[in-house]
Amino acid sequence: MIEEVAVPALAVFAATVAKKSAEAPAHTLNLLWKVTWGRWDPLMEHQIRENVERYAKDIDNELNKIPPENINSDPDISLIGPALEASKYYVAKEKARGMFAKLIAAEMDATKSDQVHHAFVEIIKQMNPLDARVLSSLHNSITLLHCIYPSKDRLDKPQLVSDICISDTFPEYKQNVSLAIGNLTRLGLLDIPTRNLGSVRVGGNQLDMIERFKRTSLYREIAQKTQSYCPPDEIRVTTYDAYLTPMAFAFRGICL
In degrees rounded to 5, what are phi and psi of residue 239? Predict the structure, then answer.
């Protein structure tokens, strides 16, 4: 049976808005908070209480940054409501909780609300902390690499490592960083113009980045693995460009 759970931090942020002489939006926030967090299975209360209190404080801290004259008198509940609802399942994740808090506060800020997009709710849901870290570290334009080398068992079927991101933040190849690049592309935050060219390999020859990659553990591992059956020049490394999209810049400005 679902019963009403007394959450001590309930709508602490609404009080912050009310103090800024904005009773209507404070009331809206209070109602949405109650709908989202006011009722919960008592068996789970001990698991969520502490994180819900942290979440309310996160939102309160973000709202405190808004000057009173910038409080949005008519916040969009079609954004705040889904953001609060979605955050129920991420409240234990500090990074996601912080992004949801920033998103809700941005909608409450009249100077930022026109930069907020409803898609941001789904983007947060589909990102992990590493995705967010990778996105924060990128600057246009971005040089990525792929490495093609012969397979010992099938010389006609080469091996491919793609979406290699080498930077000051990520000096070595990490597969989960490549997965993050793929996810950011899927979410519309990163554009790779050559992505959908099938088997056609179109790329560049940025020698400085290629040389940097050749100093990584991954390249040394590939060179060592293939030295018994192919010459070094059959390990082909190509660079290609990626670009942050307008959605990425807006999302970073609001949620990161």
Answer: -100, 155
Same domain, residue pair 68 and 113 = yes
Q: Do 13 and 103 fall into the same domain?
A: yes
255 domain-assigned: no
The residue whose two tokens read 């010992």 is: 152
Q: Could you report the per-residue pLDDT of 70-96, keeping only the tens digit for each?
A: 988 888 889 988 888 888 888 888 999
Residues 6+ apart with CB under 8 A from 37: 5, 7, 10, 52, 84, 88
pTM of the model: 0.82
Q: Please report the DSSP string for 46-76 in residue order.
A: HHHHHHHHHHHHHHHHHHTTS-GGGB-SS--
Residue 169 to residue 217: CA distance in whole angstroms: 16
The H-or-E segment that residue 240 falls in is strand 236-244
Q: Looking at the 3D structure of the chain, how many domains does it have?
A: 2
| Residue among 200, 206, 226 at smallest CA distance from 164 | 206
Identify the domain boundary among 75, 91, 125: 125
Domain span holding position 193: 133-245
pLDDT tens profile 115-169: 999 999 999 999 999 999 999 999 988 999 999 998 887 767 789 999 999 999 9
Q: How far apart are CA 97 and CA 91, in angstroms?
A: 5
Final residue of a structural domain among 125, 142, 162? 125
Tokens representing 3 are 């019963």
- Name the β-bridge partners of 145: 164, 239
Same domain, 46 and 109: yes
